[in-house]
Each structure stands twice: as structure tokens, then as C-alpha cells.
Automatic annotation (TrEMBL):
Organism: Polysphondylium violaceum
Gene Ontology terms for molecular function: acid phosphatase activity; metal ion binding
Enzyme's top EC category: hydrolase
Protein name (record): Purple acid phosphatase
Limits of the Calcineurin-like phosphoesterase domain: 134-336
Superkingdom to which the source organism belongs: Eukaryota
Signal peptide: 1-18
Length: 426
């Protein structure tokens, strides 16, 4: 055999052997109607047969352990390349279907042909039909700070892990990994920081659906990395806004980092989305979120004096009022505060049958920039503690009439602030 061909064969074989489809950054997410669970994972190379295997008993990925009582289910996935001049890797996605309520599942993600798999993971469903309602944890602005790499503060995630049996999902309202990197006038992303973060959240994200929306620290590469990593249930891959139903509650997550001015693509989508829901469900719970708050009162640019904030409020607040949005969640300012029902700066009612949206700001994930400690004079809409530490909220929709809201701070790991909200119609 000629030496040249021999070398080619050796190269070809080593290339095959070197295919690395080891899953990392494994995350669950809710889907549009909340009964199927999406799972995404990253791989260095691009596989031909990404797949999720799952079942109600523990098993091995060769599937020889399948049995009649607890068969191994599987669904093929899809893979999207993330590779550009600045990034390398692939995002894989598959969906676990035919799940039942209040059931524990074991699962693997991997590539069938290459026989490379994640460790065996597990998660439990809670009730996903509307009679069960739901409870989720929410925070924004975390990065590595929420887990103690930049600092010794791993309270947000560890306190959520402790409560996982009591939660349906986690919502991270933007400023996810703090992987952005400004060079001159351009914003790049740091793949190391992004992937370390995905590893850090795995104890939570492999056990509970991890829902996100984009923040200003997630916008690098036109949000391409953000969107393909998390694959939220948007109508189109290039849209950073989406909605879903879960246990009788309608959720709408939009992007404060895209054009939101009246009659932009996103604005039209948002209005149409809220209108359609309210026509179908005049009395249902409607929860909206994005990264940036409409109401906040720290001594910090966005809250204090921002032209962009004025445009944001002028463009979008009337939609919250018009379509009876019960709760609005956000972060961005690194603090916790909550409003009374408020519209156009005016307080409208109380937590009992409120006459306007209630705003909860939880930019308290624990990011490396530290908390916003200085406050403006308390505005009329401000109610309850204004807190500059770290922590997260839990929102418990108890039934069609009642929501219980708690804020859990990192020091006490108990609810330092609680309110009960009854359904309002406006
Ligand atoms: C889910 O159920 C449908 C209908 O019973 C069946 O056709 C499908 O194969 C099931 N999917 C899996 C992954 O078992
Ligand atoms: C499920 O996974 C967790 C780690 O996320 C582990 O501690 C637990 O033992 C697993 N449960 C079972 C039943 O294997
Ligand atoms: C919190 O930090 C400690 C010490 O660094 C570490 O042992 C532990 O695993 C961390 N917990 C989580 C949930 O990351
Ligand atoms: C990306 O982050 C890693 C880990 O923090 C750091 O070592 C590296 O220098 C960063 N890359 C750039 C280009 O800043
Ligand atoms: C959610 O439910 C509402 C009505 O209750 C319906 O209009 C909508 O199409 C459903 N699905 C999504 C993804 O919003
Ligand atoms: C809780 O967070 C605050 C503010 O970030 C910090 O000063 C404090 O050290 C944290 N608590 C503990 C026990 O580390
Ligand atoms: Fe932010």
C-alpha cells in the first residue's frame, strides 16, 4: 500500500475515533403546552443520531434492561451547529413525550450510533393538568455568583435544589452566565464562561425545567448562542420571545433586548399573544416576564433616569393593563422589590383583587457585579422590603383565585417577605 493512502486511512480512523459526542450542559425545559419536557445538551462534535432514552425504572443505555412493566422510551433528537469563527460545538435537542403526572423518570441523552451517553439522570413530574396549578422559583442576574466561583455565595442554586420536590420549574429572567465580553465597540461571548455556567446549573437544570429569557449580558453574537443553547418554546428559531401554558397558567416571556417599540415585530407578536389569550380565557392567570423592570427604585441608571426605560414603559405598560396581566417578573437591577398593583405610576387597589399588574423584581441571583445597595426615596407604588442581598422568589399559584408569593433570602433560607394575592379583573 502506498504510504500516502496509508496515512489517509490512519487519519480517517483517528478522526472517527475522536468524534466526541459526550453530552454536557444538559437542561430540561417546558414546551408550549407543558406536558412534554424538552431536553437540550451540547456536544463538541455533530452526531447523526442524537436521542433521549427514558423510563420509569433505572436502566442501561444499551436498552438490554428494558422490561414489559417499565419499557424504555426513546425519541430521536435534532442537532444545530453553534460553530462559527468565535465558537465551537453543537446544540442537541430531543423531547420526552407521553409523560404522566407525579412520576419519576430516569433518562440518558447521547448518540445512539456513537454509543456515547450522559450519566443516568432522573427527574420527577408534578401535576401538569390545570387542577394542580403550580409553583416555580424565579431570579435574574446570576452568573457564577449564584454558585460560589467568583465568590463564596452558592446560596441561590443550593437553596433551590433543596426545594426541588416542591417546584415545577425554575425561571431565570435574564443575565444568565455573564459570558459577554466587550472588545472595542463589539460584544463577543466567552465560551468558557458560558459552558462553566451550564455545568454549574446542572444539579438544578437536569432535575427541573430551566426556563430563561434574554438579558443585556446574553446578547453576544446576535443572541444566536443564547437561543440555540436554551431553545425556549418560540414559534421560530430566530425569535427570542415565546409563550407557554402550564397547569392552567399562561406565561409570556418577551425580550427587553430586542425592538419593543409599537408595531415592531416583537410588539405585534406580544399584543396579539396577550389579546388571543384573554379572548380564550378572560379569567385565567396571566404571568409576563422579561429582563427589565417597569418599576424599580434603586439609585442606578435604569431605575433612576433612563431614556430607554421611558420608551419601554411608554410602549409596553399599556399592554399589561389592557390584557389584565396579573404579575410581571423581572431582574436587571440587583435587588428585590415588589410593587402594589400599579399602572402609569398610580396605585390601583390592593393585593386583594388588584386593579392593575403587580411587579416583582428579583435581580438577586448573586452575580459578580454585586447588589445595588442604594435606594431612591420609596415611591408610592413601593410596598414591603427593598432588599439588596441575594435570594430568589417562589410563586405558588394555589388555585384559580389565589397566588402565594415568597422571597427567600440567602442568609436565612426562609421567606423574608410573603404576600397573598387574590385574582383581580381589570
Ligand atoms: C407515545 O404514545 C403514542 C400513542 O400511544 C405512541 O404512538 C408513541 O409511540 C409513544 N411515544 C413513545 C416515545 O413511547
Ligand atoms: C436522582 O439524581 C440525584 C442527583 O441529581 C441523585 O442524588 C438521586 O439519588 C437520584 N435518584 C435516584 C432514585 O437514583
Ligand atoms: C456550594 O459550594 C460548596 C463549596 O464550594 C460546594 O461543595 C457545593 O457543591 C456547592 N453547592 C452547589 C449546589 O453548587
Ligand atoms: C474567557 O474566560 C476564561 C475563564 O474565566 C478566561 O480564562 C479567558 O481569559 C476568557 N477569555 C477572554 C478572551 O477573555
Ligand atoms: C394556551 O392556552 C390558551 C387558552 O387557554 C390558548 O389560546 C393557547 O393557544 C394555548 N397555547 C399556547 C402555546 O399559548
Ligand atoms: C448573602 O448575600 C449578601 C449580599 O450579596 C452577602 O453580603 C452575604 O455575605 C451573603 N450571605 C452569606 C451567608 O454569605
Ligand atoms: Fe441586566
Amino acid at each position: 500500500m502506498n504510504k500516502y493512502i496509508a496515512t489517509l486511512i490512519v487519519l480517517f480512523i483517528s478522526a472517527c475515533v475522536a468524534v466526541d459526542l459526550t453530552p454536557y450542559g444538559v437542561k430540561l425545559a417546558l414546551t408550549k403546552e407543558g406536558k412534554d419536557i424538552q431536553i437540550t445538551w451540547l456536544t463538541n462534535d455533530k452526531g447523526n443520531t442524537p436521542v433521549v432514552l427514558y423510563g420509569r425504572a433505572s436502566f442501561t443505555p444499551d436498552e438490554s434492561s428494558s422490561n414489559d412493566i417499565y419499557p424504555i422510551l426513546s425519541n430521536m433528537g435534532k442537532v444545530e451547529s453553534l460553530t462559527t469563527l468565535y465558537w465551537s460545538g453543537n446544540s442537541n435537542q430531543a423531547v420526552m413525550t407521553n409523560l404522566t403526572s407525579f412520576t419519576s423518570y430516569f433518562y440518558y441523552v447521547g448518540d445512539r450510533e456513537a454509543n456515547q451517553w450522559s450519566p443516568m439522570l432522573n427527574f420527577s413530574t408534578r401535576g401538569f393538568d390545570s387542577s394542580n396549578y403550580l409553583k416555580f422559583a424565579v431570579f435574574g442576574d446570576m452568573g457564577h455568583g449564584g454558585v460560589g466561583i467568583d465568590r463564596d455565595e452558592n446560596y441561590t442554586l443550593s437553596h433551590i435544589v433543596e426545594r426541588q420536590g416542591d417546584l415545577d420549574f425554575v425561571l431565570h429572567v435574564g443575565d444568565i452566565a455573564y459570558a459577554d465580553l466587550t472588545k472595542g465597540s463589539r460584544i463577543f461571548g466567552n465560551q468558557t464562561v458560558w459552558e462553566e455556567f451550564l455545568g454549574i446549573i446542572e444539579p438544578v437544570s437536569t432535575a427541573l425545567p430551566y426556563m430563561v429569557c434574554p438579558g443585556n449580558h446574553d446578547i453576544f453574537f446576535d443572541l444566536d448562542v443564547y437561543r440555540k443553547t436554551f431553545l425556549m418554546p418560540s414559534n421560530k428559531l430566530d425569535e427570542s420571545w415565546y409563550s407557554f401554558n402550564f397547569s392552567g397558567v399562561h406565561f409570556v416571556g418577551f425580550s427587553s433586548e430586542h425592538d419593543f417599540l409599537p408595531f415592531s415585530t416583537q410588539y405585534n407578536w406580544l399584543e396579539n399573544e396577550l389579546k388571543q389569550y384573554r379572548q380564550q380565557s378572560p379569567n385565567g392567570w396571566l404571568i409576563v416576564y422579561s429582563h427589565r423592570p417597569f418599576y424599580c427604585s434603586t439609585q442606578w441608571g435604569w431605575c433612576e433616569k433612563s431614556e430607554l426605560k421611558k420608551l419601554f414603559v411608554d410602549s409596553l405598560e399599556k399592554l399589561l393593563m389592557k390584557y389584565n396581566v396579573d404579575i410581571y417578573l423581572s431582574g436587571h437591577t440587583h435587588s428585590y422589590e415588589r410593587s402594589l398593583p400599579v399602572y402609569n405610576g398610580q396605585v390601583l387597589g390592593t393585593y386583594e383583587a388588584p386593579k392593575a399588574t403587580i411587579h416583582l423584581t428579583v435581580g438577586t441571583g448573586g452575580n459578580k457585579e454585586g447588589p445595588d445597595r442604594d435606594w431612591l426615596a420609596a415611591p408610592v407604588w413601593s410596598n414591603g422590603p427593598r432588599f439588596s442581598g441575594t435570594g430568589f422568589g417562589t410563586l405558588n399559584v394555589i388555585n384559580s383565585q389565589t397566588i402565594q408569593w415568597d422571597f427567600i433570602d440567602n442568609e436565612s433560607n426562609t421567606a423574608m417577605d410573603s404576600i397573598t394575592i387574590t385574582k383581580g379583573t381589570f
